[in-house]
Specification:
The protein is α+β, with helices and mostly antiparallel strands. It contains 8 helices and 17 strands. The protein has a 5-stranded antiparallel β-sheet with strand order 6-7-12-10-11.
């Protein structure tokens, strides 16, 4: 995209040549042509409605499940902030802005006696959780979503049902350039103290088994089998990505400062100065070794975007 292109007027913030490494959990990535931070829903809708259709856009959350390649993104990166992170609770319904952190939504819901505790240990924000049908401990976004709100690439504000999103394991169907802005969930009621205790136990278990203090992007690869088309686990046939990685001898493997965590082999870690190329190359080497060892073709769970 031509950096001198005339973009629509906005009440939000529009920054050219914005480095994206500081906005991703792995701390890698080149610049976006533009970073757009809308002031509010109306501002976002107006901006998209006036943005030339040949200009690509890329909605970005908090960068928790993302590798931006070293050449950056030839696009307008849209990052929601204040104005999109409110959390409201009405009975056993929770309405959350797409920029609200998953953990924040889980805590507020639990305090009000609504069980969305599965969100507590999922990194990232609600928009990303919707996009990826995030799940933990046998519960998924697909199990709790009532409806979502999005802005289309043409600037139209639309309501989406779970059927519209067609949830599958670690994915949903969302048209290119659409921006999720809000989600409404339904949870069963529960005792706030009991829900808080459950979340504390989940956090303790996570910290014991995952490299939570390292620079990671969550699980690197999808579990290769054992899940139905709705994204719900089938424990009778479950196969874990970490297990096949271990069996291929890739726990702790490195390329430069990129490493498959010795603590949990399905976590890709930037131990210092890894580039996006190092991280992606290590991931591809893991996929190669696993396929050679077991015939299983691992699929990336981390989203990889941009130019080398």
């Amino acid at each position: 995209m031509d950096m001198t292109s005339t973009l629509p007027q906005t009440r939000g913030r529009l920054t050219p040549a914005q480095p994206l490494d500081r906005l991703t959990w792995l701390r890698v990535g080149g610049p976006a042509d533009w970073l757009y931070q809308p002031a509010d829903l109306e501002d976002l809708a107006d901006f998209l409605s006036q943005l030339p259709q040949d200009v690509p856009v890329f909605p970005m959350g908090v960068g928790s499940n993302l590798i931006v390649r070293d050449g950056g993104l030839r696009a307008v990166v849209i990052r929601l902030g204040r104005g999109f992170n409110d959390v409201q609770i009405e009975g056993n319904r929770v309405i959350a802005g797409a920029a609200a952190l998953d953990a924040q939504v889980a805590r507020k819901a639990a305090a009000a006696g609504v069980d969305l505790t599965f969100l507590r240990t999922i990194p990232g924000s609600i928009g990303g959780a919707l996009r990826m049908n995030a799940g933990c401990y046998g519960s998924y976004v697909a199990d709790h979503l009532v409806r979502a709100k999005a802005v289309t690439r043409a600037g139209e504000i639309v309501t989406l049902t779970p059927q519209d999103l067609n949830f599958q394991y670690r994915q949903s169907d969302l048209p290119e350039g659409w921006v999720l802005v809000e989600a409404e969930f339904e949870g069963v009621t529960g005792d706030p103290d009991a829900l808080a205790a459950r979340m504390e136990a989940q956090l303790q278990k996570r910290d014991e088994t995952q490299p939570t203090k390292d620079r990671t992007a969550g699980s690197t690869f999808r579990n290769p089998a054992g899940f139905s088309s709705t994204g719900r686990a089938d424990d009778t046939h479950e196969l874990k990505a970490w297990k096949v990685i271990d069996e291929a001898g890739m726990r702790g493997a490195t390329i430069g400062s990129a490493q498959m965590s010795p603590k949990h082999s399905n976590f890709l870690v930037n131990t210092g100065t890894a580039s996006a190329a190092d991280l992606e190359a290590l991931g591809e080497e893991v996929r190669k070794k696993v396929f050679q060892h077991s015939g299983i073709e691992l699929q990336w769970e981390i989203m990889r975007v941009g130019e080398p």
